[in-house]
Sequence to fold (169 residues):
Amino acid sequence: MFDIGMWELMVVGIVALIVVGPKDLPKMFRTLGQVTGRIKAMAREFQTTMNAAASETGLDELSKDLKKATDITRDLRNVTSPRKMGMEAMKKATSSALNGDDEAEADRPLSETEKLAQQRHKEAEQRVAAAKDRAAARTNGTAEAAQDPAAVAEDDLPPREPRTGTADT
Fold:
């Protein structure tokens, strides 16, 4: 609030010593302390009265409801951003893995991001299995090895859904 350094305090002390005198200086500081204490007590009482009036009118309930609404809007903002949803899912997964809450995690319903991640994981596993099958067929010399590898790869892959979202995902 006030930017008063050591030198400013020393100057004020010397001026007070000269103006008030060495005899009356302790009395002045005692009186100043009492006045400051009274002012603080009045401010505390005013604050308590205002809080009581706010709780009587239901203003504190309104502030709680407003806080809940802001929490909901923050959650909605996270839902609309796939990146934030993914980060939240990763945080939950790592915290549950570190805390050993795997059983609780298995019982809860999956979010859209988690469902999409599982679907993509299954698709990747299918692609890996198809690639292993093609590699085995090539080494065995079957008719499939004579086909165009690009055509075989396209046939083995499940259809992909178009990507949605923003450019920052």
Q: What stands out?
A: The radius of gyration is 36 Å. The chain has eight helices and no strands. Residues 101 and 107 are 11 Å apart (CA to CA). Residues 25-57 form the longest helix (33 residues).
